[in-house]
């Protein structure tokens, strides 16, 4: 009998942060599905750096965030998060030329590039920042 296909989903930092911090959110459902091996999550090194920088900043500002880095490390393990390398600069430049008119936030181009060039290709790219991935009005 064939195993059912588990969707491979490339996730942006906001999905993982919301999945970590929010009790009731769409991103929390993504984390739960990954923990139960219904989907496979992947991201790139830059997303991990962005998340950890944000969490460290929050830890320094708010006492209630003191254990958050430990929770983040646990979550990464429990959801079986795969991490692909950041893309080469030449690939980023090529994607930049193709997608810049559709992107409002140029800092997301390397992350989009990582998703577009990874093998196997993800079934979906998931971000909570719709405004960063849509053309200006």
Can you walk through the features of this model?
- It is a single chain.
- The protein has 137 residues and is α/β, with parallel strands linked by helices.
- Helices cover 49% and strands 11% of the residues.
- It has one domain: Rossmann fold (3-Layer(aba) Sandwich), CATH 3.40.50.
User: Could you say which structural class the secondary elements and strand pairing correspond to?
Assistant: alpha/beta
Total helices: the number is 6
Mean of pLDDT: 88
Estimate the global geometry from the Cα principal axes. globular
Could you say how many structural domains there are in total? 1
Strand content: 5-15%
Q: Assign a percent range to the helix content.
A: 40-55%
What kind of sheet is the major sheet?
Answer: 4 strands, parallel
CATH C-level class: Alpha Beta
Query: First CA to last CA: what distance?
Result: 49 Å
- Low-confidence residue ranges: none
The CATH topology is given as Rossmann fold
> What is the CATH superfamily classification?
5'-nuclease
Sketch the topology as an H/E string, one letter per element: EHHEHHEHHE
Indicate the CATH architecture. 3-Layer(aba) Sandwich
In what order do the strands lie side by side in the largest sheet? 3-2-1-4
Kindly provide the radius of gyration, computed on alpha-carbon positions and rounded to a whole number of angstroms. 16 Å
The count of β-strands is 4
């Amino acid at each position: 009998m064939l195993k059912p296909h588990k969707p491979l989903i490339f996730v942006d930092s906001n999905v993982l942060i919301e999945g970590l911090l929010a009790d009731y959110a769409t991103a929390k459902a993504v984390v739960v599905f990954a923990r139960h091996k219904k989907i496979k999550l992947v991201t790139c090194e830059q997303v991990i750096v962005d998340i950890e920088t944000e969490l460290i900043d929050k830890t320094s500002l708010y006492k209630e965030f003191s254990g958050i880095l430990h929770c983040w490390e646990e979550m990464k393990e429990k959801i079986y998060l795969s991490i692909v390398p950041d893309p080469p600069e030449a690939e980023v430049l090529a994607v930049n030329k193709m997608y810049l008119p559709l992107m409002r936030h140029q800092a997301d181009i390397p992350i989009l590039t990582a998703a577009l060039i990874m093998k196997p290709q993800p079934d979906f790219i998931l971000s909570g920042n719709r405004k960063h991935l849509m053309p200006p009005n």
